[in-house]
Amino acid sequence: MENETSNKYIQQHQDEQGLDIPIADAPPNGIDADTQTNNQQTSQISSFEKQVNKTRSLMEVLTAIMALIAFAGVAVAYYQGQITKTQFYQDQRPYVISRFKEVLVFEANKEIAINITNGNYGKTPALKSGGIGKVFVGRNAMLQADQWFKKQASNVFTERFETIIPQNTVASGPEATVSTLATERAIGIEEFNSIINNDFFLVIGMRQAYTDSIGKLYWTDFCVSFLRSGAIANCTTHNEVN
């Protein structure tokens, strides 16, 4: 009895004193507070690293794009420079242009002879020039001309250039130089009639080579053919300036 009375007294005394001993809430699943804090910090660090990596990747992409744009700008500038250089070169270079003038001799049993005039164009004129040419006759006259331009026309580059064409002379003008080309033999009556009655049975080819003030070499190819209508037509090829 005495013990029970004493226990009741102690319990009552504690209640009257208002003793309140706080008890911390236990973390869920049995994880202590330090471990939970570390996990949160680790998660935050991982998220931050992902953001940094994402930003770094974006910067790398932007850097690559900027480098590509810079390269493209350099390429465009170089291309434009080359175009300007080519245009300047084409504008300043000399041009020797040849034109058919007249038929000197056009009779059966004679050599056919043709006059061709040459003009000197361009802001930088040709100083000296030289040329070679040939008259081709036959059903394959155009093929003969093709082979001549391919294999023999370059012989002009081994010759001395001694002809001087006056500067700013047009090929049709009175000051143009004249080149005379003739067949290598007399043309018989049957072959002469074939020239009259067929297109491209008579073809004239010529190459003019020339130099400018610093000795740079250029050349112009010239090719025309007789038509049965009596007209003189340019060949489909071999009328180029080089």
What's the SSE blueprint?
Layout: H1 2-17, H2 33-92, E1 95-105, E2 113-121, E3 128-137, H3 141-151, E4 177-182, H4 189-197, E5 202-211, E6 217-226, E7 232-234
Antiparallel strand pairs: 1-2, 2-4, 3-5, 5-6, 6-7
Account of the 3D structure:
This protein has 242 residues and is an alpha+beta fold. The protein has two domains: 64 residues; 140 residues, Sandwich (Immunoglobulin-like), CATH 2.60.40. Helices cover 40% and strands 24% of the residues. It has a four-stranded antiparallel beta sheet. A three-stranded antiparallel beta sheet has the order 1-2-4, with no helix packed on it. A hairpin with a 7-residue loop joins β1 and β2. The N and C termini lie far apart (135 Å). The N terminus is likely disordered.
How would you summarize what this structure contains?
This protein is an alpha+beta fold and 242 residues long.
Summarize this structure as a short list of keywords or feature phrases:
alpha+beta, disordered N terminus, four-stranded antiparallel β-sheet, 4 helices, elongated, 2 domains, 24% strand, Immunoglobulin-like, three-stranded antiparallel β-sheet, 242 residues
